[in-house]
Design brief:
By secondary structure, the protein is an alpha+beta fold. The chain is built from nine helices and 15 strands.
């Protein structure tokens, strides 16, 4: 601050100066401003992460979860491009299931786990400068200046890897670089953890659902799933004015088979039988274990005549099936079939089940190892 110095006549004869060092005050103001900006940014990041978590939990299939992650990755880390790598079913390698941002000329769709430091160590791997950092082998040439790989671990299992490539601006302060890196790793780690948890939950739900609708011995659907599916197929067929065939089949003299070879041999025989019959079943057909040695097939959009032809092919194939147990050749099995169709033999699931069961009873009472319609005979018999 400058102030004039006057004599007794009012003339300015000098200037007085007072100086106050405000450097620390300015530094404090700048620190407060940066802290406020960081707080606002973190509040917004937490908001986005919460929205991401909600959408991941609402995702019903992995593809939805991948899309959610890509969208929020671009929002939370705008100057980034990236990819999601997920383990294949065999777990031999990882496949890129989604990419976003800038595309590379050298896109790697598959990578081995030992090509990535994050997958090898089980920890996030950040490289801020590709000239000095420890690089993963799955990077393109030339490698990105700055990138990170975050393993996706859910329920203790590594499911894949989140890969991000960031644009960097030069910073004069090493502390600023540290804060930026810390924030970046926190965001990437959080996104990878939330995606991994969502995928692991989907996998667990699918496993539990498969267990709840499948027969543990044969792998075919259980009776509960059969009842739900038959109701649904009848409603669909009614809307489309299309037929539905219900085929009930039973192993002939299975009690005698178990008495001769034992129940363990009987279980092995049923497993082999169902595995062989899968070759005669379309993807849209529903194969169920009705109970014991009795099974049921739901065949949409198939007439009784076509269903009988397919049942006859199964009957013949079973007669040529060789089964062994503990080095011993088991005697051949035979099957009896009962067929009913919607709407000719019933318009409800209960009516169709009763009709197919009645047709199966006829096949049994007439000598077994044959196919019968509800109300009449069908095809060749033995």
């Amino acid at each position: 601050t400058l102030s004039p110095v006057q004599d007794k006549d009012g003339r300015i004869v000098a200037v007085s100066s007072i100086a106050r060092d405000i450097t620390e005050h300015k530094r404090t103001e700048e620190a407060i401003r940066l802290s406020h900006e960081k707080l606002e940014r973190q509040t917004l990041q937490l908001k986005f992460l919460a929205e991401m978590g909600e959408m991941l939990q609402a995702s019903s299939i992995p593809a939805d979860a991948y899309a959610v992650t890509a969208r929020f990755a671009q929002t939370l880390i705008p100057a980034s491009s990236g990819a999601l790598f997920v383990y294949s079913a065999s777990r031999d390698n990882l496949e890129a299931v989604l990419r976003w941002g800038e595309s590379d000329q050298d896109k790697q769709d598959f990578l081995a786990a030992d090509e990535c430091w994050a997958l090898r160590t089980g920890r996030l791997h950040l490289v801020e400068d590709s000239l000095t950092g420890l690089l993963c082998r799955h990077l393109p040439e030339p490698p990105p200046t700055c990138y990170l790989c975050a393993p996706m671990i859910g329920h203790g299992e590594t499911l894949g890897m989140l890969h991000l490539r960031m644009g960097r601006h030069n910073r004069d302060s090493s502390k600023a670089r540290l804060l930026e890196s810390s924030e970046l790793t926190w965001l990437a780690r959080t996104m990878a953890e939330r995606l991994a948890l969502a995928l692991a939950d989907m996998k667990l739900r699918e496993t539990l659902r498969a267990q709840s609708i499948s027969d543990p011995l044969t792998g075919w659907y259980n009776r509960r799933f059969m009842e739900e599916t038959l109701e649904r197929e009848i409603r669909r067929a009614a809307r489309n004015e299309a037929p539905v065939a219900v085929v009930m089949l039973d192993v002939d003299n299975f009690k005698e088979f178990n008495d001769s070879y034992g129940h363990e041999a009987g279980d092995v025989a049923l497993q082999n039988l169902c595995q062989m019959l899968k070759g005669h079943i379309r993807s849209e057909d529903v194969a169920c274990r009705y109970g014991g040695d009795e099974f049921l097939l739901i065949l949409p959009d198939i007439s009784a005549e076509v269903a009988a032809q397919r049942a006859e092919a199964m009957r013949i194939a079973v007669g040529h099936l060789e089964m062994h147990y503990q080095g011993r050749l088991l005697r051949p099995m035979t099957l009896s079939f009962g067929i009913a169709t919607f709407p000719a033999n019933g318009k409800t699931s209960q009516e169709l089940l009763r009709a197919s069961d009645a047709a199966l009873f006829r096949a049994k009472s007439e000598g077994r190892d044959r196919v019968r319609f509800h109300g009449k005979a069908s095809g060749p018999t033995t």
